[in-house]
Structures are given as structure tokens and as C-alpha cells.
């Protein structure tokens, strides 16, 4: 009899809230939706910030290297007296740091899996030079990783995201990746950056132009410098560039996703003093 009373009391309570078996199913559905909304993966965002020279010859080194090649005879005989002996090609290397701000709206960290950068120098010239580099990042447990991409790396099925295949005509060795860092002053490496949950980080990716590949391109700057000098103008060595590419992430249930950036135009000016990257 007591058990029957409990049942009789419980049924009106369910009815009071408009619930029965159907109502319990409804509450369970609401709970499932709330759980899903809390854990459903969301797309991160990538914002390109800038590309800053971190390694460069000086204006005097440029003059010393190219003067014997572009100055007319007999003025070329005085090049070493005016500017010193030509530096070695390795001393003429140009490197830059590219900065991205990455935001992660998810309640879990996401790794940056791959990074593609394509750079055109003198983009408005008919003899422009294109270089492209794809980085495939490694886990911290893989020492000695070089970032060498495997088959299918830096590719996207989305037409609005540039893939490595879009830059298949890039000159080999023209652009070389040195790794990334996400701590101020940190040394570049190929360890996979992690974007913290509900946060953002600034990723710094370092790239260098192969000295031998770039020297032929910079020769046109030296030729322009001769004209500037002859006209009594201040000699400047300015490298115009265009950068674009993509970043790939592993985002939970979304799998591997890609976000593009660029194209962005800018210029690098060869400084008065040599820039040597910090070790």
C-alpha cells in the first residue's frame, strides 16, 4: 500500500511539470545539446601581421659585392678601393621573420600542423622570382626534425586556400624555412606549436633566401644603384615583395583544416649596417 502511495504521489509531480516519459526524453535531449555545444570544435583564426628583416647585408656590402659586376670600365677598377673586397656569398644572405596571430576559440588546445609561405620578389617586374616553402611540424618527441613535408602536405581541397601545388613553378632553393617560435626571443625550430585553449599566440616563422638564388635577383638593384649614383641621388636598395600562403591545424572533430593569408605586398630596405640574426 505504501508503494502504491509513492507511485500516486510521483505521477502528479511529473504531470505538474508537464513531463512524463516524453518529458524525460526532452530533458535528456537538452542535456545532450548543451554538452555538444560545449565541446563542438570551432574554426580558429589566423591574422598575418608583418614580415621583418632579421638578416641582411649592409649597403656597403652590397656595393662591394656588385660594384665590380655593374660599374662600367674603368670605374670598376676603383671598386675595391671605394668599398673594400667583395664579401663571400654566404654573407649576403637575406632572412625575414613572418608574424601571425592565431586565435583558438575552443576549450581544448590545437596544434599548428603545417605552414606554407610563397614569396615573390619584384612582383611588378616581368623577371619576378618566386620561392615557396612548406613546413610539416613534428611532435616534441621527434628530435632532429627538419620540417620536411611528406606527400600531400600543405594541400587543401578548398579552392580559396592556396596549396603547395599552386606554386609548383617556384624556383628550387629560393626560399628556405628555418622553423618557427612562439615565445619572444625563442629560437626557431620545427616543433609543432600548440595554441592554448580559449587563447591566442603570436607565431614567428623564419625564412631565408638561398644566397646563390637571390644574388642574381639583387643584381638588378645594383644596376639601379649605379643609375641613382650617376644622377646624384641617394643610393637605396629596396626589395619589393608579395607574400601569401596558408596554415593547417588539427581541430578536434573538424579534423585538419586550412586557413589562408595574403597576398600582402611590402618592401624590405637594405640597411646601412649589416643585420645578423640573434643566436
What is the rounded distance between the termini? 85 Å
Query: How many helical stretches?
Result: 5
pLDDT < 50 runs, ≥5 residues: 1-21, 30-37
Number of structurally distinct domains: 2
Choose one word for the global shape: elongated
**Mean of residue pLDDT values:** 84
Number of strands: 9
What is the SS-derived class? alpha+beta
What string, H for helix and E for strand, traces the elements in order? HHEHHEEEEEEHEE
Can you tell me about this structure?
By secondary structure, the chain is of the alpha+beta class. The protein has two domains: 2-38, no CATH class; 40-269, no CATH class. It is built from five helices and nine strands. The chain has helices at 2-16, 21-39, 59-70, 79-83, 211-230; strands at residues 45-55, 94-104, 110-121, 129-136, 175-181, 194-195, 199-209, 238-251, 255-269.
Amino acid at each position: 500500500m505504501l508503494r502504491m502511495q509513492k507511485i500516486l504521489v510521483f505521477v502528479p509531480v511529473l504531470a505538474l511539470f508537464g513531463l512524463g516519459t516524453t518529458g524525460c526524453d526532452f530533458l535528456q535531449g537538452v542535456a545532450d545539446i548543451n554538452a555538444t555545444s560545449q565541446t563542438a570544435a570551432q574554426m580558429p583564426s589566423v591574422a598575418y601581421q608583418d614580415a621583418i628583416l632579421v638578416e641582411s647585408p649592409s649597403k656597403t656590402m652590397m656595393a662591394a659585392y656588385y660594384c665590380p659586376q655593374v660599374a662600367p670600365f674603368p670605374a670598376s677598377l676603383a671598386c675595391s678601393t671605394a668599398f673594400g673586397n667583395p664579401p663571400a656569398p654566404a654573407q649576403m644572405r637575406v632572412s625575414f621573420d613572418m608574424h601571425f596571430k592565431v586565435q583558438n576559440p575552443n576549450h581544448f588546445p590545437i596544434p599548428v600542423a603545417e605552414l606554407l609561405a610563397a614569396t615573390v620578389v619584384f612582383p611588378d617586374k616581368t623577371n619576378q622570382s618566386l620561392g615557396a616553402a612548406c613546413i610539416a611540424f613534428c611532435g616534441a618527441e621527434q628530435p632532429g626534425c627538419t620540417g620536411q613535408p611528406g606527400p600531400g602536405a600543405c594541400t587543401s581541397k578548398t579552392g580559396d586556400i592556396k596549396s603547395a601545388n599552386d606554386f609548383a613553378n617556384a624556383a628550387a632553393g629560393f626560399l628556405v624555412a628555418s622553423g618557427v617560435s612562439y615565445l619572444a626571443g625563442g629560437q626557431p625550430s620545427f616543433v609543432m606549436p600548440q595554441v592554448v585553449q580559449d587563447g591566442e599566440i603570436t607565431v614567428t616563422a623564419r625564412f631565408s633566401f638561398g644566397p646563390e638564388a637571390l644574388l642574381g635577383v639583387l643584381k638588378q638593384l645594383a644596376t639601379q644603384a649605379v643609375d641613382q649614383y650617376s644622377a646624384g641621388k641617394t643610393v637605396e636598395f629596396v626589395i619589393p615583395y608579395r607574400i601569401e600562403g596558408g596554415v593547417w591545424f588539427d581541430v578536434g572533430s573538424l579534423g585538419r583544416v586550412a586557413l589562408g593569408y595574403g597576398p600582402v605586398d611590402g618592401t624590405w630596405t637594405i640597411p646601412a649596417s649589416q643585420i645578423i640574426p640573434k643566436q
